[in-house]
Amino acid sequence: MYIQPYGKISSLVGGQFGRLTVEDLHGTDKHCGSVWVCSCSCGKIVNVKRSHLMSGQTKSCGCLGYETRKKNGFKKKHGLSGTNIYWVWRSMFKKKPKIVINKRWLKFENFYKDMYDKYLDHWKKNGKKNTVLERINRNIGHGPKNCEWVTWSEHNGKNNHSRQITCDGKTMSLYELKKHTGLSSGVIRRRRISGWSLERIMSTPLRKKNALTFMNKTLSITEWAKELNIPRSIIAGRMQMPKWKNNAEKILTTPIHKKK
User: Fold this and answer.
1) d(Cα 202, Cα 172) in Å, to the nearest integer?
2) What H or E segment, with its residue span, contains residue 236?
3) Does an H or E element contain 124, and which?
4) How far apart are CA 259 and CA 113, in angstroms?
5) Terminal CA-CA length for the chain
6) Cα angle at 220 between 189 and 208, to 5 degrees?
7) What is the CB-side half-sphere exposure of residue 226 using CA atoms within 13 A?
8) CA dihedral 88, 90, 91, 96 (to 10 degrees)
């Protein structure tokens, strides 16, 4: 089909696209794409984007789709195409580089049967926007036995291949270490730089700054202040005094002298 020049926009006037015939230029959309006035073979007039005409996305005013659905008895395939779990399934096919997908999951209905109950449980606990499909073993493709629902923080931790720590011949990801130990990534890195073994990194608890041990209990200054109802500044000041420095009992049990 020959497209006549239409100012700076190539003219589609007279062009036939499915059941649509282009009559005139209507204007542009918010993305500066041209919009054309088209007449459908059924008699209706509609405005259609140039990109939709050229790609074949729009072929009629809507009558073609209606006739097709009527011919099929208005049957829905599964009725879930607008749901979040459907778009999770669709996204598996768009990942680059492409990941192998289990043959069973090539049909959405099978994916839905296998994962929906677990998806619902995770959604209730963590929220719809914080529910992501993740592969348990990243060397294997998507499948019923290799996929689980996780939060975004868990997904991002697993997804970063560069964060691997090797100690004593054992290799663990930074995410796995954080999950097992409850330590922050900064603490784990500093311990690794200091030459700690993997066993020591995982077994040594985090030392609290300015902590005091009294009655077999170790708490920070702020925690002791809340528990004993003593101003934090009093405890911190007593810890700086040479006579009180190593005596937690005296620091915490000596009554406060109020000024007269």
Assistant:
1) 11
2) helix 232-240
3) helix 108-126
4) 73
5) 100
6) 20
7) 4
8) 150
Nearest alpha-carbon partner for 201 in 180, 228, 219: 180
ω into residue 5 within 30 of 0, thus cis? Answer: no
For the record, the structure tokens of 230 come out as 């003593």
Q: pLDDT digits over 97-152, tens only?
A: 788 899 999 999 899 999 999 999 998 888 888 899 988 887 888 999 999 998 88
36: its two tokens: 């054309």
- Specify whether the CB–CB gap between 88 and 133 falls below 8 A: yes
Q: What are phi and psi of 145, to 5 degrees?
A: -90, -5
Question: Rounded to whole angstroms, how far apart are CA atoms 188 and 193?
Answer: 9
Q: What's residue 159's pLDDT?
A: 62
Handedness of CA 223, 229, 231, 234 (dihedral sign): negative
- Based on its alpha-carbon atoms, the radius of gyration of the chain, rounded to whole angstroms, reads 33
Nearest to 44 by CA among 60, 27, 56: 60
Cα atoms in the 13 Å half-sphere on the side-chain side of 229:
0
In total, the chain counts a number of residues equal to 260
Distance CA(232)–CA(25), nearest Å, equals 74
User: Residue 175's CB: how many other CB atoms inside 10 A?
Assistant: 19
What is the value of pTM for the model shown? Answer: 0.42
Measure the CA–CA gap between 143 and 137, rounded to whole angstroms. Answer: 11
**In this structure, which amino acid lies at residue 167?**
C
Measured CA to CA, the distance from residue 235 to residue 230 in angstroms comes to: 7
